Amino acid sequence: MSLRTLLVAGLATSATAVKLLVSGYAKVDGTNGTVLTLDYPSLKTVSTNDKMGPQPTWLDTTLYKEKGLVLGLDEAWSTPDKAGLYALKKSSNGGLDVTGFATILGGPVSTQFYNKNSAVAIAHYGGGAISTFSVAKDGAFAPLQNITYGTEGHGPGAGQTTSHVHHSVIDPTGRFLVFPDLGLDATHVFCIDPATNKLTAHADLKAVAGAGPRHAVFWQSGRKTFLIIVHELNNSIVSYEVSYPREGGLAFKEVDSQSTFGNITAPAGAAAGEIQVSPDRKFVLASNRNATLSNVANPDPSNSTQVPSDSIVTFKPTPQGKLEFVQLAPSGGKFPRHFSTNKDGSLVAVANQQSFSVDVYARDVRTGMLGKKVSSAFDLPSNPNNVLFVDE
């Protein structure tokens, strides 16, 4: 079924050309997933790339403005020996073409550039590992390290029988990388050698047993630095104050823990997903999956049947790192694996994986609250799992 779109009448448009990049897993009856380039605000398809394997799962636009380059990952859980790191280049038709490929460790799900974009670190969920690559000035990648984990210290949950490294995040100093590991109930900490781009391990940050740390963000208030981690299995967001001991590594002091459902109890089976800081650094947003809280208007204007919706939660961090609940808002569909804000934070685009839709909501940058849905792309050709705004 072809992609269809809904645009709410009266939406103001920007003079700057804006697009959305959307990766998605292949449908059950499909062979390859897709990377879509959508025009905004119409969300009409500019280009469809189906050359990134069966499970495209992550897009990184760090080098897009400078080199027109997007880094992509094929998680390849259906063909684990063929997981891939892809280089995609902006094409003349406004889409993305594959220009480079490397076979990597299985189950890659996240990337983080570091050391002035001269290297990139990859978190491998399926492979229980971390891999790093150097990045040449022409965008070419060369392998540096493979760091693998096993079953030792695994969590008590059914999905925690082994390591599942889920995210790679750089600290504000640029000297450390952290990697939440859902399977081991730990966040791995590494320092970066600026001369070689090699990583050296330091002591892990341990989570509560069964919490399942998934994704993380750093946030700063004055001279204080905080690490805020969203946990998939117990649906918590935990804030830690970060310090930098003379002997090396990072030290953490827990200052707050909140439910990803704010002021209500997390429903059974819920699974927290993404976490991000707003562009003005005043708010933290996270997604909740597999926990319908409301029904919302169908994105198809010809269909009056409402659709179930998961949620996006917003918190406002205090200068002491406490998390003040702001809002629990609809995501527009089921299983919001990923979301992102536009440059000024006035829009939030949500990849609702099980609804085959991308839904864009207005956001009040002053209050941090999500408002009305302004645009939708539905009946997508793959299960959307990552969505990013890019300015042309």
TrEMBL record:
<dbReference type="GO" id="GO:0017057">
    <property type="term" value="F:6-phosphogluconolactonase activity"/>
</dbReference>
<feature type="signal peptide">
    <location>
        <begin position="1"/>
        <end position="17"/>
    </location>
</feature>
<dbReference type="Pfam" id="PF10282">
    <property type="entry name" value="Lactonase"/>
</dbReference>
<dbReference type="InterPro" id="IPR011045">
    <property type="entry name" value="N2O_reductase_N"/>
</dbReference>
<comment type="similarity">
    <text>Belongs to the cycloisomerase 2 family.</text>
</comment>
<dbReference type="InterPro" id="IPR050282">
    <property type="entry name" value="Cycloisomerase_2"/>
</dbReference>
<keyword id="KW-0732">Signal</keyword>
<dbReference type="InterPro" id="IPR015943">
    <property type="entry name" value="WD40/YVTN_repeat-like_dom_sf"/>
</dbReference>
<dbReference type="InterPro" id="IPR019405">
    <property type="entry name" value="Lactonase_7-beta_prop"/>
</dbReference>
<protein>
    <recommendedName>
        <fullName>6-phosphogluconolactonase</fullName>
    </recommendedName>
</protein>
